Please model this.
Amino acid sequence: MTRDLDWNVLAKGSPLLAAMPEYVRRNAQLRRFPKSAHVFARGDRPQAMYFIVSGEVHLVRSSLTGDQIVLQRVQRGFLAEASLDQARYHCDAVAARASELLVLPRKPFREALADEQFSKAWMSHLSDELRRARTQVERLALKSAEARILHYVETEGRDGVVILNQSKKDWANELGLTHEALYRALARMERGGRIRSDETGLTLLPMT
Model:
Protein backbone atom coordinates (compact mmCIF):
# COMPACT_ATOMS: atom_id res chain seq x y z
CA MET A 1 0.00 0.00 0.00
CA THR A 2 1.37 3.46 -0.87
CA ARG A 3 0.34 7.04 -0.24
CA ASP A 4 1.48 10.53 -1.19
CA LEU A 5 4.72 11.77 0.33
CA ASP A 6 5.11 14.86 2.48
CA TRP A 7 8.85 15.51 2.44
CA ASN A 8 8.64 18.33 4.98
CA VAL A 9 7.37 15.78 7.49
CA LEU A 10 9.62 12.93 6.36
CA ALA A 11 12.81 14.99 6.49
CA LYS A 12 12.11 16.36 9.97
CA GLY A 13 14.90 15.15 12.24
CA SER A 14 16.78 13.43 9.40
CA PRO A 15 19.64 15.45 7.86
CA LEU A 16 20.09 12.67 5.32
CA LEU A 17 16.53 12.86 3.99
CA ALA A 18 16.69 16.64 4.08
CA ALA A 19 19.79 16.54 1.83
CA MET A 20 18.30 14.04 -0.62
CA PRO A 21 18.22 15.32 -4.22
CA GLU A 22 14.86 15.94 -5.87
CA TYR A 23 15.25 13.18 -8.48
CA VAL A 24 15.60 10.57 -5.74
CA ARG A 25 12.54 11.91 -3.99
CA ARG A 26 10.48 11.65 -7.17
CA ASN A 27 11.13 7.90 -7.34
CA ALA A 28 10.34 7.18 -3.68
CA GLN A 29 7.26 5.44 -2.31
CA LEU A 30 5.82 4.79 1.13
CA ARG A 31 4.84 1.20 1.82
CA ARG A 32 3.17 -0.40 4.80
CA PHE A 33 4.22 -3.77 6.18
CA PRO A 34 2.12 -5.71 8.71
CA LYS A 35 3.71 -7.22 11.78
CA SER A 36 5.98 -10.22 10.98
CA ALA A 37 6.09 -9.39 7.25
CA HIS A 38 9.44 -9.67 5.48
CA VAL A 39 10.75 -6.43 4.01
CA PHE A 40 13.35 -8.59 2.29
CA ALA A 41 14.84 -12.04 2.77
CA ARG A 42 18.34 -13.42 2.82
CA GLY A 43 19.49 -14.08 -0.74
CA ASP A 44 17.24 -11.45 -2.33
CA ARG A 45 18.83 -8.97 -4.72
CA PRO A 46 18.70 -5.43 -3.27
CA GLN A 47 16.43 -3.20 -5.33
CA ALA A 48 15.93 -0.31 -2.92
CA MET A 49 17.09 1.43 0.21
CA TYR A 50 14.65 1.53 3.11
CA PHE A 51 13.96 4.24 5.67
CA ILE A 52 11.66 3.30 8.56
CA VAL A 53 9.16 6.13 9.06
CA SER A 54 7.10 4.46 11.79
CA GLY A 55 6.92 1.10 13.49
CA GLU A 56 9.98 -1.11 13.93
CA VAL A 57 12.00 -3.39 11.64
CA HIS A 58 14.67 -5.89 12.68
CA LEU A 59 17.61 -7.09 10.64
CA VAL A 60 18.01 -10.68 11.83
CA ARG A 61 20.17 -13.73 11.28
CA SER A 62 19.89 -17.23 12.75
CA SER A 63 22.70 -18.55 14.92
CA LEU A 64 24.14 -22.06 14.67
CA THR A 65 21.76 -23.12 17.44
CA GLY A 66 18.75 -21.78 15.55
CA ASP A 67 18.23 -18.71 17.75
CA GLN A 68 17.55 -15.39 16.09
CA ILE A 69 20.13 -12.65 16.58
CA VAL A 70 19.03 -9.08 15.97
CA LEU A 71 21.82 -7.30 14.09
CA GLN A 72 19.97 -4.03 13.65
CA ARG A 73 16.77 -2.71 15.21
CA VAL A 74 15.35 0.43 13.61
CA GLN A 75 12.37 2.46 14.75
CA ARG A 76 13.16 5.50 12.62
CA GLY A 77 16.02 5.60 10.17
CA PHE A 78 17.77 3.65 7.43
CA LEU A 79 17.94 -0.13 7.38
CA ALA A 80 20.73 -2.35 6.03
CA GLU A 81 22.87 0.48 4.68
CA ALA A 82 25.55 -1.96 3.49
CA SER A 83 23.10 -3.36 0.93
CA LEU A 84 23.83 -0.35 -1.27
CA ASP A 85 27.00 -2.16 -2.43
CA GLN A 86 25.91 -5.79 -2.08
CA ALA A 87 24.75 -8.21 -4.76
CA ARG A 88 22.45 -10.05 -2.31
CA TYR A 89 21.15 -9.61 1.23
CA HIS A 90 22.90 -11.64 3.91
CA CYS A 91 20.12 -11.27 6.50
CA ASP A 92 16.34 -11.07 6.76
CA ALA A 93 14.49 -7.83 7.48
CA VAL A 94 11.27 -8.43 9.42
CA ALA A 95 8.66 -5.96 10.68
CA ALA A 96 8.59 -6.33 14.47
CA ARG A 97 5.28 -4.47 14.42
CA ALA A 98 3.14 -2.81 11.75
CA SER A 99 5.52 -0.41 10.01
CA GLU A 100 5.63 2.23 7.30
CA LEU A 101 8.77 2.40 5.18
CA LEU A 102 10.08 4.88 2.67
CA VAL A 103 11.28 2.84 -0.33
CA LEU A 104 14.04 4.51 -2.35
CA PRO A 105 15.11 2.76 -5.58
CA ARG A 106 18.78 1.83 -5.34
CA LYS A 107 19.99 3.15 -8.72
CA PRO A 108 19.02 6.83 -8.26
CA PHE A 109 20.09 6.59 -4.61
CA ARG A 110 23.59 5.53 -5.67
CA GLU A 111 23.70 8.25 -8.31
CA ALA A 112 22.85 10.81 -5.62
CA LEU A 113 26.19 10.13 -3.93
CA ALA A 114 27.75 12.32 -6.62
CA ASP A 115 25.93 15.23 -4.94
CA GLU A 116 28.38 16.74 -2.45
CA GLN A 117 25.83 17.70 0.20
CA PHE A 118 24.09 14.32 0.12
CA SER A 119 27.40 12.44 0.03
CA LYS A 120 28.61 14.22 3.18
CA ALA A 121 25.33 13.47 4.96
CA TRP A 122 25.55 9.81 3.93
CA MET A 123 29.15 9.44 5.15
CA SER A 124 28.26 11.04 8.48
CA HIS A 125 25.35 8.63 8.83
CA LEU A 126 27.55 5.61 8.02
CA SER A 127 30.12 6.69 10.61
CA ASP A 128 27.41 6.77 13.29
CA GLU A 129 26.13 3.35 12.23
CA LEU A 130 29.65 1.90 12.26
CA ARG A 131 30.09 3.00 15.86
CA ARG A 132 26.80 1.33 16.79
CA ALA A 133 27.72 -1.86 14.94
CA ARG A 134 31.09 -2.09 16.67
CA THR A 135 29.37 -1.72 20.01
CA GLN A 136 26.96 -4.54 19.12
CA VAL A 137 29.77 -6.84 17.98
CA GLU A 138 31.71 -6.10 21.16
CA ARG A 139 28.65 -6.95 23.23
CA LEU A 140 27.89 -10.23 21.42
CA ALA A 141 31.51 -11.34 21.91
CA LEU A 142 31.03 -11.32 25.69
CA LYS A 143 30.60 -14.83 27.08
CA SER A 144 28.06 -14.43 29.86
CA ALA A 145 24.53 -13.08 29.82
CA GLU A 146 25.35 -10.88 32.82
CA ALA A 147 28.28 -9.29 30.98
CA ARG A 148 26.11 -8.52 27.96
CA ILE A 149 23.43 -6.95 30.15
CA LEU A 150 25.96 -4.74 31.94
CA HIS A 151 27.56 -3.75 28.64
CA TYR A 152 24.15 -2.77 27.25
CA VAL A 153 23.33 -0.61 30.26
CA GLU A 154 26.73 1.07 30.16
CA THR A 155 26.71 1.77 26.41
CA GLU A 156 23.02 2.44 25.74
CA GLY A 157 22.02 3.98 29.06
CA ARG A 158 22.91 7.09 30.96
CA ASP A 159 24.22 7.37 34.52
CA GLY A 160 23.61 3.67 35.09
CA VAL A 161 20.00 3.77 33.88
CA VAL A 162 18.67 2.38 30.61
CA ILE A 163 15.09 2.70 29.39
CA LEU A 164 13.88 -0.25 27.35
CA ASN A 165 11.65 0.71 24.43
CA GLN A 166 11.08 -2.93 23.47
CA SER A 167 9.84 -6.12 25.09
CA LYS A 168 12.19 -8.26 27.15
CA LYS A 169 11.85 -10.98 24.50
CA ASP A 170 12.99 -8.60 21.75
CA TRP A 171 15.79 -7.35 23.99
CA ALA A 172 16.96 -10.94 24.52
CA ASN A 173 17.20 -11.35 20.73
CA GLU A 174 19.27 -8.18 20.49
CA LEU A 175 21.61 -9.55 23.17
CA GLY A 176 21.92 -12.88 21.35
CA LEU A 177 20.21 -14.72 24.23
CA THR A 178 17.09 -16.79 24.68
CA HIS A 179 14.47 -14.95 26.70
CA GLU A 180 14.75 -17.67 29.35
CA ALA A 181 18.50 -17.03 29.68
CA LEU A 182 17.87 -13.29 29.95
CA TYR A 183 15.25 -13.70 32.69
CA ARG A 184 17.51 -16.05 34.68
CA ALA A 185 20.44 -13.63 34.41
CA LEU A 186 18.30 -10.67 35.47
CA ALA A 187 17.01 -12.64 38.45
CA ARG A 188 20.56 -13.55 39.53
CA MET A 189 21.71 -9.95 39.18
CA GLU A 190 18.76 -8.65 41.21
CA ARG A 191 19.32 -11.21 43.95
CA GLY A 192 22.97 -10.19 44.04
CA GLY A 193 22.04 -6.51 44.42
CA ARG A 194 23.70 -5.59 41.12
CA ILE A 195 20.66 -4.15 39.34
CA ARG A 196 17.09 -3.08 39.86
CA SER A 197 14.74 -4.10 37.06
CA ASP A 198 11.18 -3.11 36.21
CA GLU A 199 8.94 -2.98 33.14
CA THR A 200 10.50 0.24 31.85
CA GLY A 201 14.20 -0.54 32.19
CA LEU A 202 17.20 -1.28 34.39
CA THR A 203 19.21 0.62 36.99
CA LEU A 204 22.73 -0.34 38.03
CA LEU A 205 23.10 -0.35 41.78
CA PRO A 206 26.28 0.76 43.60
CA MET A 207 28.60 -2.03 44.65
CA THR A 208 28.70 -2.56 48.41
In short: The two ends are 56 Å apart (CA to CA). The CA atoms of residues 48 and 107 lie 8 Å apart.
